[in-house]
Amino acid sequence: MGGLLSVDSGVFEQWRQRSLAAFEIALDGFVPAGAPAGLGEAMRYAVLGGGKRLRPLLVLAACEAVHGHTEAAMRAACAVELIHAYSLVHDDMPCMDDDVLRRGKPTTHVAFGEAVAMLAGDAMQALAFEVLTPETGVEPALQARLCALLARSAGYDGMAGGQAIDLASVGKQLDEATLRDMHRRKTGVLLQASVLMGAACGPADAKATAALSDYGAALGLAFQVVDDILDVTQDSAVLGKTAGKDQDANKPTYVSVLGLEAAGRLADQLRDQAHRALAASGLTDTAWLGLLADMVVERNS
Amino acid sequence: MGGLLSVDSGVFEQWRQRSLAAFEIALDGFVPAGAPAGLGEAMRYAVLGGGKRLRPLLVLAACEAVHGHTEAAMRAACAVELIHAYSLVHDDMPCMDDDVLRRGKPTTHVAFGEAVAMLAGDAMQALAFEVLTPETGVEPALQARLCALLARSAGYDGMAGGQAIDLASVGKQLDEATLRDMHRRKTGVLLQASVLMGAACGPADAKATAALSDYGAALGLAFQVVDDILDVTQDSAVLGKTAGKDQDANKPTYVSVLGLEAAGRLADQLRDQAHRALAASGLTDTAWLGLLADMVVERNS
Question: CB contacts < 8 Å between A and B, how many?
Answer without folding.
Answer: 192
